[in-house]
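[job 0417] fold request received: Pentatricopeptide repeat-containing protein
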Amino acid sequence: MRRWPPRLPAAAVHRHAGAPAAPDVAVAMYHADGLVRQHNRSLVEPLRRGRFSAARRLFDALPARSVVTWNSLLAALCGRSDVRAARSFFDAMPVRDVISWNTLLAAYARSLQPDHLSAAHRLFDEMPQRDAVSWSTLLGAYTRRGLMEEAQRLFDEMPHRNPASWNTMVTGFFAVGQMRKALNVFEAMPIKDSASLSAMVSGFIRNGWLHEADELLTKRLRVMDMDKAVDAFNTLIAAYGQTGRITDARRLFSMIPKTQSHHKGHKRRVFERNVVSWNSMMMCYIRTGDVCSARALFDEMPYKDLVPWNTMIAGYTQVSDMEEAEKLFWEVPDPDAVTWNLMIRGFTQKRDVEHAQGFFDRMPERSTITWNTMISGYELNEDYDGTIKLFQRMLEVGERPDHHTFSSVLAACVSLAMLRLGAQLHQLIEKSFLPDTATNNALMTMYSRYGELTSAKAIFSQMHTQKDLVSWNALIGGYEHHGNATEALRLFEEMRSAKVMPTHITFISLLSACGNAGLVSEGWVFFHTMVHEYGLAPRVEHYAALVNLIGRHGQLEDALEVIKSMPIAPDRAVWGIPGSLHC
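[job 0417] inference complete; emitting structure tokens
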């Protein structure tokens, strides 16, 4: 039986505002306030668990509510992105405070509806009182939409600007590519902190101004006096690594002290290398394949958490040095799932599936990612039976497969000609989740390969905006493979209308389809379209398909002329075509 919260004393509900409370009434009111607080706490649990309907029923049953009670449910409505319902609830509130107004304002500010920004500004104008959150919320709404003129006007009107509002303007100007204005705002800041510095460095990096970011850190400011300034250094080190500027990354890394500096009598704010600094520099070396320099840094680190251990192991797997990776693995104090998965993936990439399976079997706990890593390892190494067996084992232990699992297993079904199992997987996929593009492509490839073109076309038609280049090529290739040139050519015209850029694979299928159907003139058109319209340089496979097309249909001399005019050396397959046609 449902137990509703206890009702409040009548004195709490009917008290006259401002009337002095008698001792017994005061005691009753104290008890009533305690009950309201108890009711408010009772709302927290269903709201925290996302059980909004239960929370709403509980709210409606409460005999009395404070503004905190109303705000709790308002926040839940806003969190559900139901701004219209939140506004109706707000309008029905008998009492509101600045938190109520800010909660609804934030909902409007976050909304992507085009009319909600103006609604946010109207609400802001109606507010009986505003605090720093109110101003910052509306300011953020403008900057996120790139409306920097409106943001600047609001910023100029702000009675008090805190560091967050200055940083919001900096980030906003960077987002629209106005680097100079962002720099002007930064220079005008009365107080610059590490968050301001990080906003500047990140903004410069996103806009490709790495030199300016470097100058800011190393020449224009005394950043070493800023608490957490090392975060900005780490960001720029990583950016240098991503652009291959390892020397600059190392120079910046060397500027960060290893140990904390001290003044006489007291400790300075921290500016020293942290784990992220070391790891970022290691990643720079690993990106270029310089695992020796990365290992030297790793060995020099005064303290290591799991991240640098995993980074170093990933570096060894990247260069296929699994002997060193394994040595390091057994030194890891407490390897996590990432550590184990790195080893499994590393051995499968080196085609040592047996060693990978050994790590898989020793692993204390396996996630879906681990199963996927091992299953895809079997499939990539063409051990399709192993792929199917491990997938069956995965189901037996109750692990839930995902899109990645099915993509690997479907590929194995294609290679083993197990269409029946593939169809069963298709049914399981439809019952389990909405297939993504990769899974649909794998299903289409399977059905196309074995002539189930109706099923392949049905999947293709259901994909709508999910189609990618692989989707188009899979179905075009399926039609070509099974001699349906008309559908292959028709689908290519749809592909062009959809503004999808074809690839070399697309044109190999089209030329082969024309060859099978004797469409010589159409084949020539596709060959010229590939070269002149799409700028794709023909490969040996394209010339072979073209020579086969025109040679098989009585134009042997033209076929020989094509071979002689090839800008690349014809292989045996190309030279063999005219000879086979003489027979």
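[job 0417] notes: The first strand starts at residue 262 and ends at 263. The longest helix spans residues 23-48.
[job 0417] exit 0
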